[in-house]
Amino acid sequence: MQNYNANAGNQNNPLKKYFRQAKLHIALPSEYKFYPPGSIEIPETGELEVFSMTAKDELSFKTPDALLNGQATVEVIQSCIPGIKDAWIMPSIDIDAALVAIRMATYGEMLTMTTKVPVTGEEREYELNLRDVLDNFSNLVYENVVQVDDLTIHLRPLTYQEFTKNALKTFEEQRIFNLVNDESISDEDKLQAFTNSFTKLTQLTVDMIVQGIDKIVVGEEEVTNRDHIQDFMKNADKDFFNNVMDHLNTQKDKYTIKPMEVQSTPEDIANGAPATFLIPITFDQSNFFASGS
């Protein structure tokens, strides 16, 4: 039986010149730090090619399970930004920029957002320029070193895989909190479930902090052993822990896309709406990557 080589087939395909072409080029916010060898191919220009989504890519964003566990996001990023070889281990601070670029390459720079006006409840449409969002990422710097007393902590953003696993765990645990409103469950069982869930969420927070620590330097000694770091964080003074957590949260917030401020219409203002209000910008694939949105 003759083996079929897909790459060789593509080379000889007379339709190859009609394949999708790169629509834009981007430099990711991390400046390609924190990528393990082999996970990314960086062009000499420092900018990655971004292609529009294929029909398969668009369909993958309509598969609930693949969206929940992150598989759809990984497959679409690797399809549309082929320089990224393993999107699972992308620094999480690069994910939003990559998704914005893919959205722009597929549907254009403008995103129509529909929201209800405060007070009046009227639905209005507003335009968001994604180029402005993408440009804002280029001005950010991830500060990965924090000094606490005589300890120097070197941090890293979570990988997308770590971020997704933690988000799934949080989602599962938060479901338990919903038991509080379930009248069919006894107060004793509710209290037990709530206590267990709170304990797990607390441990999850500690684990996330530990995952974000690359190493701790004490004088001339570098501590990189994960067990040693975890043991230290469990036994460290709460002020030390809070300093590290606050620093990580500050870095995370920098890479979170800020809400868009919009103006109410004169009609809505006359009916009690504020002159301006904020619209959260979220990457809900059901609308952010919906055709024509």
Which strand order spans the largest sheet, edge to edge or round the barrel? 5-6-7-8
Strand fraction: 15-25%
Number of helical elements: 12
Sheet of most strands: 4 strands, antiparallel
The total of beta strands comes to: 10
Task: Give the overall silhouette.
Answer: globular
Structural class, from secondary structure content? alpha+beta
Query: Unreliable segments (pLDDT under 50, ≥5 consecutive)?
Result: 1-6
Average pLDDT, all residues? 86
N to C succession of SSEs: HEEHHHHEEHEEHHEEHHEHEH
Gyration radius over CA: 23 Å
* Termini Cα gap: 47 Å
Q: Helicity level, as a percent range?
A: 40-55%
Would you give an account of this structure?
44% of the residues lie in helices and 16% in strands. It is built from twelve helices and ten strands. The longest helix has 25 residues. The termini are far apart. The N terminus is likely disordered.
Topology:
Layout: H1 6-12, E1 24-26, E2 48-50, H2 55-60, H3 64-68, H4 71-80, H5 95-107, E3 110-116, E4 123-129, H6 130-137, E5 145-148, E6 151-155, H7 160-177, H8 187-211, E7 213-218, E8 221-223, H9 226-235, H10 238-254, E9 260-263, H11 266-270, E10 276-279, H12 285-288
Antiparallel strand pairs: 1-2, 3-4, 5-6, 6-7, 7-8, 9-10
